[in-house]
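Standup notes
- DV: blocked on the single-chain target, sequence here:
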Amino acid sequence: MKTAYVPRRMEGTIRKLSKGFPCIAVTGPRQSGKTTLVRHLFPEKRYVSLEDPDERDFAEQDPRGFLLRFASGAVLDEAQRVPALFSYLQRVLDERGKMGYFVLTGSQQFHLVESITQSLAGRVALLHLAPFSFSEMESVSCLGDDLDEVLLKGGYPPVHTRDVDPGAWFSNYVATYVERDVRALLNVRDLATFRRFLRLCAGRVGQLVNLSSLGTECGIAHNTVKAWLSILEASFILFLVSPYFRNFNKRLVRTPKLYFYDTGLLCALLGIEKKEHLELHPQRGSIFENAVAAELVKERLHAGREPNLFFWRDRSGFEIDFLTEKDNVLDAVEVKSGKTVLSEFFRGLHRWREIAGAAAGKSCLVYGGDESFVREGHVIVPWRKVASLLR
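- DV (later): unblocked, structure below
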């Protein structure tokens, strides 16, 4: 279903924060719907894109005059393009004393956050908008019932709001946005090597991050691997899930695992073009696990909260896919891509209860089926309802 606007989970968060902060900043990956969202929420404010050379030149040459044009505030898109503007924006916000006065968006978190922390600390609420979540797509009936189709298409808005082939869109997305941001943030001369690095990251989704292995296979130095991963994190292409730190036993794995914010982009990097290929792909289970991780992260981000997602693995090989923490209680989440729930799926959850003791909260299983129920004391959740685990 093609639709012009998909209601976002973040809408309520922005409305609430705009009553207590003079400035709202929304960052996230390119094409995640930031501009559409803020223009929908603030239709009365003038919209200005600092990607426009004329507007950018005005803002650079006369920043105070640029800002004084907006008596009712404004939406400033790609605000990080003019870092010098932020000091003048601070003065205007303080002089006017209005809440929700200016709204900023930006795709390069490094530059936007740096400018905010230097000039607008205490005046701005910073939010991160990821691609569509399952619940957002389901609200306008564009989620679909075919899990493999959902994983293949992912959640980037243009794939759902335009009549476009997902494979062609993702190919162009990597070339025009991901590589563009990398060139802007790092001096990457050999883009072919960087593309190979991206594909290698995709091939390791759900696995422990091995910097040495990535560097060796890609032919780059250890420090370069760390820098490139940092840029991909800052550009909201991928994220790392850390191991939980509490010592229920002392033989813990301390290396994070790697996931992508969007399974459509992940599938494209893995060369999966059709759902028939995904159904039989050896990494289908890892891609489904990635989808669950991304949904749990999106739910927190879109509510204006930091992700509280961890995993557990000890050196004997025992692992719980995900842990979410609240008030020192840990909910355990196991992920199985199959449509049928088997008793053996609960072995890890049973053992986790023994290890965690009083710290163990709910134990949950997310699977590839369609029904919610409770079995052997565990909450069984279908893939499309992952976000309900955090509500």
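- Follow-up: The mean pLDDT is 92.
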